[in-house]
Design goal:
This protein has 284 residues and is mainly β. It contains 1 helix and 21 strands. It folds into 2 domains: 181 residues, Galactose-binding domain-like (Jelly Rolls); 92 residues, Immunoglobulins (Immunoglobulin-like). The strands form 4 sheets. Strands 1, 2, 4, 5, 7, 10 and 12 form a 7-stranded antiparallel β-sheet that branches. It has a 5-stranded antiparallel β-sheet with strand order 3-6-11-8-9. It has a 5-stranded mixed β-sheet with strand order 14-21-20-16-18, with no helix packed on it. The chain is elongated and about 75 Å long.
Length: 284
């Protein structure tokens, strides 16, 4: 069966995260109906079909449903009477990070008399829906959706599915989507690129200076990291913040080895975007 069409509006190329949100990079060149997941994946670049209905539509212009308001291509999704539904993922040019804000945009329409509902998710796999971040009903005529979402998880894929579950056929439960877009709506996390300790070897009661180097200046409010130690033979802060505008900073750890032999203590600094480890050898 033919599926409902969903369209997404693009943004500046320098900011766009969806690699083929307009679906123009495809090998079909014209409308193709009822594609299996494998056919859709092989036809539309940087997109993967994974729904249980396996009848995704790549639709040009007005071949089925209304002309997209931007571009000329829309993807049709269908929910079958048995509850099976179409779904696909779009590959991003980099991961989204939990707690970060992103601007999600798309155009959504139903077919005449065939309203549906879609859900958008974030996933680490191209073949699973992942975590829900937005939902919308499709109605006759295009509606532009432009929302700010806060990513609940890290993920490399934006996923779209017709809402699964019971439903009818004969013109119901169809949606169309076009011009899928996702851009960062807030400062990206700075990533730790190196972590060093000086001196590398200390005794109980002595200190070592840990230097943190970032890939970019810390955003307003600073870049906050969690600090973990592999042993209590070394003590130091549980969290550390690189001040705003700085690309490096230092903190101090102290030897506290109650054993009779030297202990190597790994120090791991992490935030949602990155992680780095160094070590200090602590003698009694």
């Amino acid at each position: 069966m033919l599926a409902a069409c969903l369209g997404l509006a693009g943004t500046a190329a320098a900011q766009e995260m969806v690699l083929n949100g307009g679906f123009t990079n495809n090998t079909a060149g014209s409308t193709v109906f009822n594609m299996s997941n494998a056919d859709f994946t092989n036809t539309v670049a940087n997109c993967t079909g994974f729904g249980t209905a396996e009848e995704l539509d790549l639709i040009y212009g007005t071949d089925f449903g209304p002309q997209p308001p931007v571009g000329n291509i829309k993807i049709g999704l269908h929910r079958q009477a048995n509850g099976n539904s179409d779904a696909f993922s779009a590959t991003l040019n980099g991961p989204v990070f939990p707690g970060q804000s992103y601007q999600l945009q798309f155009d959504l329409s139903a077919l005449a008399g065939g309203a549906g509902s879609i859900e958008v998710g974030i996933s680490n796999s191209p073949n699973t829906f992942g975590t829900l971040v937005y939902a919308a009903d499709s109605i006759d005529g295009w509606v532009h959706h432009n929302v700010i979402i806060v990513a609940p998880v890290m993920g490399q894929y934006l996923t779209v599915r017709e809402v699964p579950g019971g439903g009818g056929d004969g013109g119901t439960n169809f949606s169309c989507i076009a011009q899928l877009s996702l851009i960062s709506a807030g400062p990206a996390f700075s990533r730790v690129v190196s972590l060093s300790a000086l001196p590398r070897e200390i005794r109980t009661g002595q200190r070592s200076v840990i230097t943190v180097n970032l890939d970019r200046a810390a955003p307003p409010g600073g870049s906050r990291f969690t600090v973990r130690y592999s042993s209590t033979a070394l003590t130091g802060p549980a969290t550390f913040t690189v001040p705003a505008g700085r690309r490096w900073a230092t903190f101090i750890v102290f030897g506290s080895n109650r054993a009779t032999t030297a202990r190597r203590v790994d120090i791991t600094l992490s935030n949602p975007a990155s992680s780095a480890t160094t070590y200090v050898l602590v003698n009694p």
